[in-house]
Amino acid sequence: MRSPQVGLAPWQLRTVLVVLLTGQLLSALDQTIVGTALPTMVGEFGQIDSFSLVVTSYLLTTTAAMALYGKLGDLYGPKPVYMAAIGIFTAGSLLVGFSQDMTQLVIFRAVQGVGAGGLVVLAFTISASVVPPRQLGRVQGMVGAMYALASLVGPLVGGAFTEFVSWRWCFWINVPIGVIGLVVLATNLKLPRISRPTSIDYVGATLLVATISVLVLISIWGGTEYAWSSPQLLALIAAAVLLTALFLLWERRAKDPIVPLALFRKPEIALAMVITFVIGVATIGAYFFLPIYLQIVRGDDPTVAGLNLLPLMIAVMLGSGLSGWLIAAVLGRTKVVVVAGVATMTGGLYLLSMLDVATPAWQLWLYQAVLGVGMGMVISKLIIAVQNLVDRRELGTITAQANFIRVIGSAIGAAAFGAVLAAQLGSAWSSNAVLDALPNAAGVLYQDPASIKELARTQPEVYPEVVEAFAGALSTVFLVAAGLMVLAFALAWFLPNTTLRKDHGHGGAPEREKVGAGE
């Protein structure tokens, strides 16, 4: 039987898939295992108040690296760059596990982030380099399913490591997986050779990293660490404007720009990027704040909360896999899947806004399933749509930009929804005499779930009021996220209804065809 790839044998396809799935497993496990361990990690060093530094350092370097890896993959080939990313991530994981103080923990998490940026971007780039566009839905559906699979076991494994062994094993578990991935890459993966360039846009790369770093700091600190009118935030905003202007001016003149601005002049690409950004903002409302509902409002332990997240993760797997098959085997195009997925996500987030203290488990699971199916249908399918609109030599760059924009959206979403949560809780404290009388009432927001649960024993008259306040605040967060998805739904209707090619003929915008047109 003829291989579905162009110029590659079936065994090579299997090798590529193993490598991609291994890389996605590394990245996914780091995000899903670590979440339940973070309070214990920073608590061991006596710096619970520095919790955000661990998250921020990782987010900054991951986001900044994502755009760079795509270009490096285009220039030097995805295989060596992907190997470097796995090596950096594995080394960072090992070092984090040996951290002896908060400073080391923050620095080594930043090292991990540098590697993680490549794992996210280059998996999609490699698959797009060796798989015909019409089959990308199936392959990338498998990649998304691996991420969801890690999401199923990650919180449970993280809770078990933290409770029964040590939080350090949440990071050391990455080391054998990373080593296996490097061995497979070095000995088996064969990709088409590309010409090695003589230069890289170092000035553009430096300006890009600086701009991204400042923007992420603004999104994290704005309205939380500092008021928007504070000198610190105003200085950061001014720096962001200046750096952005310098970056755009330089990229317009650069011989080999790190971000080819001409790509974004295509309206269909620009539109897909805007939708990707909005989805990144809204999605974080589920991934970041749903566990807060489970652990604070419902009072679940971390491992039980992980079990209660299974419907969401399973639904993401099903939505990703089935929609990938639908695109590859039936439709041959992405628009209808993206529009339907955005609509489903919108409905799922609205349903989550109806959660309260008394919501039965079956409703919680049903609401998550609706959201998860929509998420699985949308996230990787937008990347396929963008990849189908550019030349093959630009695949890495455009894939990196799409992932980069989604992560930036998630960073801004986390900060914005955090501000919404804080504002809603502050309103609850001031309007509730019982909560207002609680010593350091506003500080409850920054306590870990176990500390809030302890109120049920130490101050039973206050605990129900605290839980109700969180339920109301989280309802607002989910409702705002649903509102953003309404915007994404409206924009998705303007995406081009293009047919994906069956070969590697990436060469600009594909033809607009009617369903069933000659193939």
Question: Care to describe what's here?
Answer:
This protein has 519 residues and is mostly helical. The protein folds into two domains: 9-189, Growth Hormone, Chain: A (Up-down Bundle); 259-511, Growth Hormone, Chain: A. The chain contains 19 helices and no strands. α3 packs parallel to α5, α5 crosses α16 (395-431) and α11 crosses α16 (395-431). The longest helix has 37 residues, at 395-431. It is globular, with a radius of gyration of 23 Å. It starts with 9 loop residues before the first helix and ends in a 27-residue tail after the last helix.
Search tags:
519 residues, mainly alpha, Growth Hormone, Chain: A, 2 domains, 19 helices, 74% helix, globular, disordered N terminus, disordered C terminus, transmembrane transporter activity, transport, MFS, EmrB-like, MFS_dom
Give me the secondary-structure topology:
Elements: H1 10-35, H2 38-44, H3 51-76, H4 78-97, H5 102-130, H6 136-165, H7 169-172, H8 174-188, H9 202-221, H10 231-253, H11 267-297, H12 302-308, H13 310-331, H14 335-352, H15 361-387, H16 395-431, H17 433-436, H18 449-458, H19 463-492
Helix pairs in contact: 1-5, 1-6, 1-8, 3-4, 3-5, 3-9, 3-16, 4-5, 4-8, 5-6, 5-16, 6-12, 6-13, 6-15, 9-10, 9-16, 11-15, 11-16, 11-19, 13-15, 14-15, 14-19, 16-19
Protein name: Major facilitator superfamily (MFS) profile domain-containing protein
Keywords: Cell membrane, Membrane, Transmembrane, Transmembrane helix, Transport
Transmembrane segments: 51-69, 81-100, 106-131, 143-165, 171-189, 201-221, 233-250, 270-290, 310-331, 336-353, 365-384, 404-425, 469-495
